[in-house]
Design a protein that fits this description.
Elements (H helix, E strand, L loop, with lengths): L2 H12 L4 H8 L3 H13 L3 E6 L7 E6 L1 H4 L6 H16 L1 H23 L5 H14 L4 E6 L2 E6 L5 H6 L2 H13 L4 E7 L8 E7 L1
Antiparallel strand pairs: 1-2, 3-4, 4-6, 5-6
Helix pairs in contact: 2-3, 5-6, 6-9
Length: 205
């Protein structure tokens, strides 16, 4: 097992730990563990919270995010794909589309609430990228001329999207709605169409 994997494994099996505890468990230096944790945090795999334990500064406890948990084997994606295929076979395409539309509405409402405090377009794109990163998409926002690129390097719903690409269409529709009146949104690269990632080009109106 690689040292990087060992840190994630310890958080998976033991739950929240301090950097000092992880150093003792893995045999790494405290500085080495902290460096890895910061890298994992930037990738959206871990997060930390402060806990006061007696006198002195609060201790920082690190734990896996949803994306971090997704790094470990899990057959829920395969099960989801099977259920979608059965739904389409037994209930018809209309039932699947109804399900996707309900998920789209729910996700869009969540994003709108979170982005409500965003000021300009740049801040809105960056906040959306942060939200998507928390959901496991390994997302980042990059300036591109007068506009922005929302790049997603991982698809945590890949199995479901492969079984039914209505999910991909739905996500593009969500983003277009979120930026309506501010910018146009188009998908310039698509993971399931052979791209290395999903990329959304956001161009100011």
């Amino acid at each position: 097992m690689m040292a990087n994997d060992d840190v994630l494994y310890r958080l998976k099996t033991l739950g929240a730990q301090t950097a000092q505890q992880l150093a003792l468990l893995t045999g790494l230096t405290g500085m080495g563990v902290r460096k890895q944790l910061l890298q994992f945090q930037q990738a959206g795999l871990v997060c930390c919270d402060e806990r006061r334990e007696g006198v002195g500064r609060p201790a920082q406890y690190w734990q896996l995010t949803a994306a971090g948990h997704a790094r470990f084997p899990d057959r829920h994606g395969e099960l989801t794909a099977q259920l979608l295929q059965l739904m389409q076979t037994q209930l018809g395409s209309a039932a699947v589309e109804t399900l996707i539309a309900a998920r789209e509405k729910q996700a869009e409402q969540h994003y709108r609430q979170q982005l409500n405090s965003a000021g300009d377009l740049a801040e809105r794109v960056k906040q959306l990228a942060a939200l998507r990163a928390q959901e496991g998409y390994m997302a980042e926002a990059r300036a591109d001329g007068s506009g922005w690129l929302l790049q997603e390097h991982h698809c945590p719903i890949c199995s479901a999207a492969t079984a039914c690409q209505g999910f991909c269409r739905s996500e593009l529709s969500q983003f277009q709605s979120l930026f309506a009146g501010m910018a146009t949104v188009e998908r310039s690269e698509h993971l399931l169409s052979g791209g290395q990632r999903c990329v959304y080009r956001i161009t100011p109106v």
